Amino acid sequence: MTTDPRTLARRRFTLVALLLPAVATALAVVAHLLLLPHVPGVVATHWGWTGEPDGFAPSWTVLLVTVLLGLGLPALLYGAGIGGLRRGDHGTSYRLLGAVAFGLAVLVAGLGVATTGIQVGRTAPDVPLPVLLLPSVLLAAVAAGLVGWAVQPRLPWRPTPASTAPNVPVRAGERVVWMQGVTLARAGAVVLWVAFAIGCVAVLPVLFFGDPVSAIISGLVVVVLFVVVATTLRFHVRVDAEGVTAVSAAGWPRVHVPIEDILSAEVVEVSPFGEFGGWGIRWSGGGRQGIVLRAGDGFLVRRRDGRTLTVTVDDAAAAAGLINTYAALTPERRDD
Question: Does an H or E element contain 53, and which?
Fold first, then answer.
């Protein structure tokens, strides 16, 4: 009995992005529990460029961070991708997502166990970092990622045919404005907020027990995560005689395509992960940019220099029609 390729892709993605990371983390937890009685109560958790320890924390925090990140990050990536796969979506981004999830789990598990293991039998957290420790763990993580990539079937993304936008009658000198708001899909919002929560929890041990420099860096990471979430939740899109403008509800970032730079617009069916690898402001190969907050209808703007802008939004046909009308009325367009 032959399994449908998309069903196979979904099953293998679940195996690589969720089940194998859980196994790797479980093995790391067992190793930690065996090692904890033989390490100091306070262990080194960060090493400087010279290999000497410069950050310390209670030994149990290493196990906590290993569990949080080893399970949380792959689960986050799994949650980001499984919805699209269940809808029948496909593309290389899903395959990469699964491979990264497994690689991250092995990286987190390996770092936690290795850095704890080198402190076995010590009475003080003064252990220098072995030169080959990080390269060895990174090599294992890359190998896991490659295995995860190879296990999943190859199903490249294929665009759905674009549809023609209806004509929007606008006379020369007349001003028509089209405006619409688009909110990040629930799945995307959950993923971003969970990522923010995991980041906050993961840096708590560093903030309370780490050195000042590590605490400042960790605090900045949390701030950056919050800015990413806050500026991605909602965008306002406007089409008028000046062109296409999309701005975050937070006021930044802002994307504008002048009408004189526009060749044409069309209605498209958008797959955030299959086409762009995720939600938000995205860039893909071939000069393609996207403001993709959900799957479904959107409009694609073709620029005169070959680049494109894709925006997912309701009433995309009306927006594309108005863009085409204004592009036709623009003097630079008529002179071609």
Answer: strand 53-58
* Side chain identity, residue 53: P
| Coarse DSSP helix, strand, coil percentages of the chain, rounded to the nearest 5 percent | 50, 20, 25
What's the CA gap between 120 and 331, in Å, rounded? 75
Nearest-angstrom CA–CA distance, 67 and 160? 41
Strand order in the sheet with 288-292: 262-270, 296-303, 308-312, 288-292, 280-284
User: What are residue 211's phi and psi, to 5 degrees?
Assistant: -75, 165
Give how far Cα 108 sits from Cα of 2, 5, 29, 67, 89, Å: 36, 31, 11, 9, 30
Q: Which two tokens stand for residue 96?
A: 């990469």
**Nearest to residue 294, comparing CAs of 233, 230, 227?**
233
Q: What is the b/e burial string over 127-150, where b = at least 16 CB atoms within 10 angstroms of the residue's CB?
A: bebeeebbeebeebbeebbeebbe
User: From start to end of 115-252, where are the E strands?
Assistant: 178-183, 234-240, 243-248
Cis peptide before 135 (omega within 30 of 0): no
List, for the chain, all residue ranges whose pLDDT scores fall below the cut of 70: 1-2, 159-163, 172, 202, 205-215, 331-336
The domains found in the chain, sorted by start residue, are 5-157+187-230 (no CATH), 178-184+234-334 (2.30.29.30)
Handedness of CA 9, 12, 14, 18 (dihedral sign): negative
Question: Cβ atoms within 10 A of the Cβ of 221, count?
Answer: 15
Amino acid at 23: V
Helix (H/G/I), strand (E/B), else coil: 283: strand
Residue 251 sits at φ, ψ, to 5 deg, of 95, -15
The predicted pLDDT at position 334 comes to 46
- For residues 140 and 55, the answer to whether their CB atoms sit within 8 Å is no
Pair of tokens at residue 257: 């395509």
